[in-house]
């Protein structure tokens, strides 16, 4: 396959940046999207040009580091995958592919396609934890009975890898799907009840302070989420937040 | 409880509550307008009651005004905040791949509804306020004193083609707004459960049938006059 790539190049956080055209030839349809970028970078290095900076780590769809916005969609045109799981067979010979960083004021570009997603870390720090006795009397989590239905829902929410595709896909750059998954995974379990009130209030407060937009329920986040995190979690977080606000 | 309206979820909740109120009002408005198709007398009687009852005029009407203004102002405030949350737009964005046109363009359908509402107020509400509270005529009677004026005024208003066309377009935008707004309001107040699927169907029916009903009423009066 021969392709034209329109890639966002930006020297650093202060640079204006812009799209630059590249031609890649003899791309195998069995390559992953990141492997195709590796080939491009090898070619650029051989030509003494600056390679394209992009985030990646596990390349197994687990870490959530690869953060590319490909042809107008987070992680590209396929569903339920991260960019490393996107294969070139999803494209046709002669295609022009737009590759941009995840866009949000709360996700500033560091370089090229690499964005700073530490806003998610700060939201986690604000309440994404539980208190556990670690002084020698630690109770095994399995010793506490949990309703199967709740356990399943909590597990589904816990599969969120914090990649930020929800923010990138949302027309409002809202982080509600991510925050709601983190709130839900604890709200549904007995271990999470102790800090339930403070957790949702603090995490939502931090989310707002980071400059993410307001959710308008378009559902784009759910469609583009590589882990299929459901909008049910946002509804649950809304309930938890209102309950906590009335208490507090 | 303090500061709930300063949070993103609090604003969503307030937006949804005002939407519920307006959707209930719309249903009531439609029910009364429907009467005009079946019985001029019944329409006149109910219109006179609504236009002269103090509870409706001085309690419900101000609440309605507040609800309308709040919904629009909050809608614009949220839109401005949301636009600030992304400084640089995507060079290529395929919104249609993951969301409906209606959900992505609530601000535009809302803007058209606002324009329609201003015209609607100029057509019906301001003349009504003028007759009752400026000229002081609370009788609701025609100039010749032969019966109530409401039905006659309604038919007269729907005589020009341009106004009927404008109303039809206004209600199409209302339908587009409701197609996303109805279920979005339930999601915002945290109602996403086993009833959601059924509610989505009901929401679609509401969003299409109520505006369509208003269009039919306007057309009936235009062609019957």
Automatic annotation (TrEMBL), chain A:
Residues 151-181 form the 4Fe-4S ferredoxin-type domain. One of its GO terms (biological process) is aerobic respiration. Gene3D superfamilies: 3.10.20.30, Alpha-helical ferredoxin. InterPro entries: 2Fe-2S_ferredoxin-like_sf (IPR036010), 2Fe2S_fd_BS (IPR006058), 4Fe4S_Fe-S-bd (IPR017896), Beta-grasp_dom_sf (IPR012675), Helical_ferredxn (IPR009051), SDH/FRD_Iron-Sulfur (IPR050573), Succ_DH/fum_Rdtase_N (IPR025192). Its cofactor is [2Fe-2S] cluster; [3Fe-4S] cluster. One of its GO terms (molecular function) is electron transfer activity. It holds the Pfam family Fer4_8. NCBIfam families: PRK07570.1. This is Succinate dehydrogenase iron-sulfur protein. It comes from Xanthomarina gelatinilytica.
TrEMBL record, chain B:
Signal peptide: none annotated. InterPro entries: Cytochrome_b-558 (IPR011138), SQR/QFR_C/D (IPR034804). SUPFAM superfamilies: Fumarate reductase respiratory complex transmembrane subunits. GO terms for cellular component: membrane. This is Succinate dehydrogenase.
């Amino acid at each position: 396959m021969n392709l034209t790539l329109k890639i966002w190049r930006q020297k650093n956080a202060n640079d204006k940046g812009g799209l630059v055209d590249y031609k890649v030839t003899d791309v195998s349809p069995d390559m992953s999207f990141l492997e195709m970028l590796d080939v491009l970078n090898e070619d650029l290095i051989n030509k003494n040009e600056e390679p394209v900076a992009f985030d990646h780590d596990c390349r197994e769809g687990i870490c959530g580091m690869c953060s590319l916005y490909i042809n107008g969609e987070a992680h590209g045109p396929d569903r339920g995958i991260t960019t490393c799981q996107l294969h070139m067979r999803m494209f046709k010979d002669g295609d022009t592919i737009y590759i941009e960083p995840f866009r949000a004021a709360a996700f500033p570009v560091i370089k090229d396609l690499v964005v700073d997603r530490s806003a998610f870390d700060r939201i986690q720090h604000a309440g994404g934890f539980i208190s556990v006795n670690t002084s020698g009397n630690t109770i095994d989590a399995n010793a506490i009975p949990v309703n199967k239905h709740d356990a399943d829902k909590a597990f589904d929410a816990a599969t969120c890898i914090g990649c930020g595709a929800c923010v990138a896909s949302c027309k409002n750059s809202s982080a509600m799907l991510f925050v709601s998954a983190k709130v839900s995974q604890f709200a549904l379990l007995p271990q999470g009840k102790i800090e339930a009130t403070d957790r949702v209030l603090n995490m939502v407060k931090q989310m707002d302070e980071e400059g993410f937009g307001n959710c308008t329920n378009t559902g784009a986040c759910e469609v583009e989420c590589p882990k299929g995190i459901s909008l049910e979690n946002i509804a649950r977080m809304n309930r938890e937040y209102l309950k906590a606000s009335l208490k507090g | 409880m303090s500061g709930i309206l300063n949070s993103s979820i609090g604003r969503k909740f307030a937006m949804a509550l005002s939407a519920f109120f307006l959707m209930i009002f719309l249903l009531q408005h439609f029910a009364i307008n429907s009467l005009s198709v079946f019985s001029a007398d019944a329409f006149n009687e109910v219109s006179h009651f609504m236009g002269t009852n103090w509870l409706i005029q001085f309690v419900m009407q101000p609440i309605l005004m507040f609800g309308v203004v709040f919904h629009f102002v909050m809608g614009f405030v949220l839109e401005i905040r949301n636009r600030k949350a992304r400084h640089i737009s995507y060079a290529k964005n395929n919104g249609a791949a993951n969301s409906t046109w209606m959900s992505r363009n609530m601000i535009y359908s809302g803007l058209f509804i606002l324009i329609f509402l201003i015209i609607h107020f100029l057509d019906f509400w301001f003349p009504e306020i003028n007759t009752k509270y400026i000229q002081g005529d609370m009788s609701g009677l025609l100039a010749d004193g032969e019966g109530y004026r409401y039905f006659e005024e309604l038919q007269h208003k729907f005589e020009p083609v341009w106004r009927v066309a404008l109303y039809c377009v206004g209600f199409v935008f209302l339908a587009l707004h409701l197609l996303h707004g109805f279920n979005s309001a339930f999601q915002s107040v945290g109602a996403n459960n086993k009833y959601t699927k059924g509610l989505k169907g009901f929401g679609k029916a509401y969003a299409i049938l109520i505006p369509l009903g208003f269009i039919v009423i306007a057309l009936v009066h235009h062609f019957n006059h």
